Amino acid sequence: MAATPAWPPRSAPRLFVAQQLAVGAMVALDGNAANYLSRVMRVAPGDAVILCDDATGEWAARVVEAGKRSVTLEAVERLRPREDMPDFWLCPALLKKDRFDLVLEKATELGVRRIQPVITRRCVADKLNAERVRAIVTEAAEQCARTALPELGEPAKLEALLRDWPADRALFFADELGGVPAAQAFSGSTGPAALLIGPEGGFDDTERELLRAHRQVKPITLGPRILRGETAAIAATALWMGVQGDWNK
Question: Which of 21, 88, 215, 231 has the fewest CB atoms lying closer than 10 Å?
């Protein structure tokens, strides 16, 4: 006798939806989401789709109607509760658009809980398109099977960020002039943490002095080579996840 195929199949498409889900909830999709399901994935009534609502978790849904411009699904069962992401924030200085897009995407895939963009004196940009940022991290979360979207902060100037910094959260500062080796610093730290990465031109002397004078800031080094901002953000985040995050669970 042939084995019964698993349901939902691992190949089922994944989408985040704004609606909070429950057993029997009907979800009507249009726009890009409907186009993706109907024209790219070519779903038909009865097919499975994985839905996440960033509140209750991950759900198996069944396609009820599939049109060219709209798709209706019914939530059938919850597969996983919303995951508790490691308490790690990434605070990257704004970079050129394509490079910052990469940081957003990879930070989401790596499991960052919050992305807090920072504006420094040498930043080449001072604002972000919030809708575009949300689309990038949502697509990345769908691709890597996260059930929780990262929190997104509004871009903040460095001085304001430090002024309002929570007293219980360590802020690792990747300083190209040196500090404690990152792996050593991460291993010796407990509790909530964050990582600050500078812009293409690095931090200026005034910013560096301000950072090193802050009681929650811990200067670290990411090795003997000078890394691009996007490389430093991705590499250091991956290192923290391996040392203190959820990679070894």
Answer: 215
The span from the CA of 164 to the CA of 166, in Å, is 6
CATH code reported for the domain at 14-80: 2.40.240.20
Give pLDDT tens digits for 133-177: 999 999 999 999 999 999 999 999 999 999 999 999 999 999 989
Chain-wide mean pLDDT for the chain? 95
Question: What is the band of 68 on the pLDDT scale with cuts at 50, 70, 90?
Answer: confident
Contact criterion met (CB below 8 Å) for 26 and 73: yes
DSSP state of 224: S
Q: How far is CA 67 from CA 24, 34, 47, 78, 116, in A?
A: 20, 8, 13, 25, 39
**pTM for the complete prediction?**
0.93
CA distance 64 to 249: 37
d(CA 138, CA 33): 12
DSSP conformation letters of 69-83: SEEEEEEEEEEEPPP
> What is the Cα–Cα distance from 149 to 154, expressed in whole angstroms?
16
- Could you say which of 3.40.1280.10, 3.40.50.300, 3.100.10.10, 3.40.190.10 is the CATH number of the domain covering 88-243? 3.40.1280.10
Alpha-helical segments (H) within 145-223? 158-163, 182-187, 205-213
